Amino acid sequence: MTRPGEVVRGYPHLDTVRAAITALYRRLSPEGVLAYAPSVLPAEVAFDDRDDLHLGVQRVAGALVRHLRLPQARMIVGFREMTHAATVELTAGPEYFIELNDRFRNHRRDIGAALAHEITHVLLHRLDLSFPGTRRNEILTDTATTYLGAGWLLLDAFRESRLSSQKLGYLTPEEFGYVLAKRALAFDEDPAPWFTSPQAYTAYTQGRALALRDLRQPPLTTAGRTGRVRYARDRRYAARYGGRAPAGDRPGFPGPARAPWLPGGPGAGEHPGYTFEPGENALRVSFPCPVCHQRIRLRVQGRVRARCGVCGSILECDT
Question: What pLDDT is recorded for position 271?
Answer without folding.
Answer: 57
